[in-house]
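EI: anyone free to look at a 247-residue chain?
SC: sure, send it
EI:
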Amino acid sequence: MAEEWIIGKNPVTEALRSGRSINKIMISDQLQKQAAHKIQSLAKENGVTVQQVPKRKIDQLVEGNHQGIAAAVAAYSYSSLEDLFAAAEKKDEPPFFMILDEIEDPHNLGSILRTADAVGVHGIIIPKRRSVGLTAVVAKTSAGAIEYIPVARVTNIAATIEELKERNVWVVGTAADGSEDYREMSADMPLALVIGNEGKGMSRLVKEKCDWTVRLSMKGKVSSLNASVAAGLLMYEVFRKRNPLGE
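SC: here you go
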């Protein structure tokens, strides 16, 4: 696998905690002692080499706000659909997946991963073409959640939806003209929520494959929400219904 860089305190910390294979870590000589000590301690527990270097060296190696910490790792690997079902089975919960239909912005994918981890999503499904993959920017935006949420990369989203339905998973799309308000959505059954492209929404074929669609009611002048915000609202609605107060 090619080498990539994870940058930032939280992403590197979570990579160490998750047991991710890390080749080396570089920390800036300007990093606060407390933050440096925390990373060094975790790295020592995992047998990972830490190098203290001038900040400019990290600046030259990576782009973005690295916060004085960068870890060289093998490129992220993808999970299979079976891995996603296994994650649900391990928790003894009905499957809860997110399907991202051509999401292109790495910040959106990273944010969706972060929320998915918070609410207990068992996995995310993305297409191989016309979609952002698991990049360093996605890892940074996810604040470490990329280490815990399996992501399956499939050749054909429509065909994958058919496979999910054959395995008794209900597939619910999101559209401005959705057949019901998202707050009316049932959530106690095996479920996969579809979020469409930032500009075009769901493709026609994917929309046709969904069992039904939901809409996010809006009172303002803007016609749609950011993809990661819409995904977050839907994920938390499922979380709310699966985890009522007092249970």
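EI: The mean pLDDT is 90.
SC: 👍
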